[in-house]
Amino acid sequence: MLLSLALAAPLLMAAEAAPATAVKDADPMICERSQVIGSLLKSKKVCMRKSEWEAQRQENRMMIDRSQTQHPMNSGG
After folding, report:
1. pLDDT digits over 9-29, tens only?
2. What domain range includes position 49?
3. pTM score over 0.90
């Protein structure tokens, strides 16, 4: 009985790890290099999950759209 539990334990652990691995594969880690502002040679590496990159790009797009459509309050005429 003890031997069968010892053999079954790794299988149970692998079965529990499989869904976590599937989630990681569905949302992989992506690293990008970006130029450091004010430097011609320095760059930094930024790593985020694919969903985080998409959320960041969507937020940046919304900020650009908002700044382009916003009218100044004081026209200075």
Report:
1. 555 566 555 666 666 678 999
2. 27-69
3. no
